[in-house]
Amino acid sequence: MSARIEPLLKNRTLLFWSLQVGGWVAYAISQVAGTLLYDSKYDAMTGYFTVIAVATGSGFLLTLQLRSIYLRLWNRPPRVIIPLALLSCYLLALVWRVIINSAYLQYTSESMEWVMKSPLEFFSNAMHSSYLLLCWSAIYFGIKYYLSLQEQQQATLRAAALAQEAQLKMLRYQLNPHFLFNTLNAISTLILDSENRTANQAVMRLSEFLRYTLDQDPMKKVTLRQEIEAMNLYLTTEKLRFGERLRLEFAVEERALEALVPSLLLQPLIENAVKFAVSPSEKGGLVRVEGRARGSMLELVVSDDGPGLHAGAAPGVGRGVGLRNTRERLAVLYTDNHRFATLDNKPGLRIEVGLPLEMAAD
User: Fold this and answer.
1) pLDDT for position 174
2) How far apart are CA 228 and CA 230, in angstroms?
3) Are 218 and 167 a contacting pair, CB within 8 Å?
4) What mean pLDDT value characterizes the chain?
5) pLDDT tens-digit series, residues 176-216
6) How confident is the model at residue 86, as a pLDDT?
7) What are phi and psi of 250, to 5 degrees?
8) Beta bridge partners of 249
9) At what angle do helices 320-334 and 266-273 cross, to 10 degrees?
10) Could you tell me the strand order of the sheet in which 297-304 lies?
11) What are the structural domain ranges in the chain?
12) Burial of 211 by CB count in 10 Å (0-12 exposed, 13-18 middle, 19+ buried)?
């Protein structure tokens, strides 16, 4: 049974139409059964079956309208969804009763006994129809919420796996013999030059950064302030290698510093800038980090003045594996509610990241 249901749960459109058709067929069968039990004394039942067919078809179409309304309401808060859903059910129930009662008057001989004293009688039994539409709505929202919850849980699991993979790749880079050789060689040079205090500070910074990468939970969000402090530990070791060739600029608004970001988000972006803009150039290069809060979004920018995109590269493609991993990680964490773009800065590369603005608890 589960093997048959699983494809439906994965395909929301197929699931909806299966339940929609099946539900209204069940409604029609129940109405026919009720009519046969209650009105079996009448010889001609064609008119009643026609009314049932009209009620079923119109109910089917009206609930499609409900679905269209609910799709627009889905991302609204409950205080908006609930009253609008109740109002929609009642208004469409009035339309449904007009259709059913009109069919009853037209197709059944018993309608001759029903003398309408007012056009308002076309809306009779509207509360009963409202109840049916409310039941349909409850089932619709219940299933949709369940599927969304399942998707969120799956996205969380994928994000955890991807974040762990990103952390492992970063750790592998940090422990890369080439990286450690360059850093330790710079420290050794400081010692030979009798700059023991500076060398000691460099060793402490390097150990603190490596400890940070080991201890940091890949799924934990930290403030942008904490993220920048961790990046300063990383950049201190890079400064030993490049000296004045590595120029840094930070332009981060105070409010943005308290915004939450995925841990170790900036490291691969800054590493990419150092690798492609600073390392190949004898004059070095500039790496600039910007951060600002705009409305409901946190905007981050990491730019450099290096060679920029390769000739013929499409905008948004970018350089290096680190950018691709970051893009994939953000896609899992935030789905469509984020922005990641790599732009040719002329000169250099500009990486723009937009995330939902989440502030640290006071």
Assistant:
1) 46
2) 5
3) yes
4) 81
5) 555 567 677 778 887 887 878 878 877 887 788 777 777 76
6) 93
7) -125, 125
8) 288
9) 160
10) 246-252, 285-294, 297-304, 349-356, 339-344
11) 2-151, 175-356
12) exposed
Residue 175 has pLDDT above 50, yes or no: no
Within its chain, how far is the Cα of 233 from the centroid? 32
Q: What is the DSSP string of 75-95?
A: TS-HHHHHHHHHHHHHHHHHH
Cβ count near 143 (within 10 Å): 15
Distance CA 176, CA 94 (A): 71
Per-residue model confidence (pLDDT) at position 190: 77
Strands 285-294 and 297-304: antiparallel
Q: Which residue has the tokens 């001759």?
A: 112
Q: Locate tokens 């209204």: which residue?
A: 24
Q: What beta strand segments (E) does the chain contain? A: 221-223, 246-252, 260-262, 285-294, 297-304, 339-344, 349-356
Angstrom distance (rounded) from CA 190 to CA 243: 12
Helix (H) or strand (E) holding 188: helix 177-192
CB 295 within 8 A of CB 338: no
Residue with tokens 């905007």: 299
C-alpha angle 239-240-241 in degrees, rounded to nearest 5: 90
Mean pLDDT value across residues 240-247: 84
Confidence of residue 24 (pLDDT cuts 50, 70, 90): very high
For residue 26, what pLDDT band results from cuts at 50, 70 and 90? very high
Collapse the DSSP code of 307 into the 3-class scheme (helix H, G, I; strand E, B; otherwise coil) and give the result.
coil
In sequence order, what E strands does 173-267 have? Answer: 221-223, 246-252, 260-262
Q: Are 341 and 325 in contact (CB under 8 A)?
A: no
CA distance 268 to 274: 10
Say which residue the tokens 């179409």 belong to.
Answer: 61
Rounded Cα distance, 87 and 66, in Å: 11
CATH 3.40.47.10 for domain 175-356 = no
